[in-house]
């Protein structure tokens, strides 16, 4: 491993050296640390590993929250950081079998932890979520979360429940958080999102009925906005930002929502 590339986290932050995003295994930024590291594959022609360092205050390292790295740092290797954080969290959280409690070890062939006692693998967890941009004539819905201090508005989103289709989750989450009914639900795209291990699946939907009635523990504010008059929104590095920009283009073009 000496000289290999290393993505280093500390809690929910990434430790960034001054000349990029990767530390070198055994380099001066690591000090005397030689923690457990997990191979993520290759970056270019070099092997890259992920680990967690116990001391975020090592000299030469900038501490960035994961959200800062993914939302506000244009040169960040987003896909690799996203994957590395999710895999490391899974590796750390599944050191013991959830069925029998025995310690797990690495699977010999797959990205999984293996319980020798139960003879079963434990794979990385993925939580499916829906995120929806809702159109009403020449306006679209934006909402501000009640749970964060970020100043931008985003979209309605939520986890898919057991036994539920994605389209059913779209309708339910919209109804629960806003009191609105939607129709013409159609899938647009997806994005992995490491908070903590989500797969965000983006949808368009059209307003059908109802008045805005906010779920107060979820939303601090919400409203209908035009493409040229709206509050700050997430960047296009996020699926929310891309969905919003795409909807703005559709409204400006003057067409109605595609029917399914």
From TrEMBL:
UniProt-listed SUPFAM superfamilies: Nudix (SSF55811)
Domain Nudix hydrolase: 124-248
Any one of the GO CC terms: cytosol
CDD domains: NUDIX_NADH_pyrophosphatase_Nudt13 (cd03429)
Enzyme class: hydrolase
Superkingdom of the organism of origin: Bacteria
Record carries keyword Cytoplasm: no
A Gene Ontology BP annotation from the UniProt entry: NADP+ catabolic process
Protein name: NAD(+) diphosphatase
The species this protein was found in: Marinobacter oulmenensis
């Amino acid at each position: 491993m000496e000289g290999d590339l290393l993505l280093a986290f500390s809690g929910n932050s990434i430790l960034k050296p001054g000349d990029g995003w990767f530390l070198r295994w055994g380099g001066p930024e690591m000090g005397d640390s030689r923690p457990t590291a997990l191979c993520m594959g290759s970056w270019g022609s070099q092997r890259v590993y992920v680990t967690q360092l116990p001391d975020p205050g090592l000299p030469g390292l900038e501490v960035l929250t994961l959200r800062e790295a993914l939302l506000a740092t244009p040169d960040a290797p987003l896909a690799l950081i996203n994957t590395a954080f999710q895999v490391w969290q899974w590796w750390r959280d599944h050191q013991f079998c959830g069925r029998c409690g025995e310690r797990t070890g690495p699977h010999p062939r797959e990205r999984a932890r293996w319980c020798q006692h139960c003879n079963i693998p434990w794979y990385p967890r993925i939580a499916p979520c829906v995120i929806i941009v809702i159109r009403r004539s020449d306006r679209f819905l934006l909402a501000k979360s009640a749970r964060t201090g970020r100043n931008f508005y985003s979209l309605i989103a939520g986890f898919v429940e057991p036994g539920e289709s994605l389209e059913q989750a779209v309708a339910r989450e919209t109804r629960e958080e806003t009191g609105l009914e939607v129709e013409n639900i159609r899938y647009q795209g997806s994005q992995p999102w490491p908070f903590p291990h989500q797969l965000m699946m983006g949808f368009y939907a059209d307003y059908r009925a109802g008045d805005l009635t906010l779920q107060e523990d979820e939303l601090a504010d919400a409203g209908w906005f035009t493409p040229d008059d709206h509050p700050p929104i997430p960047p296009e590095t996020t699926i929310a930002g891309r969905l919003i920009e795409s909807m703005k283009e559709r409204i400006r073009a003057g067409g109605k929502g595609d029917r399914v």
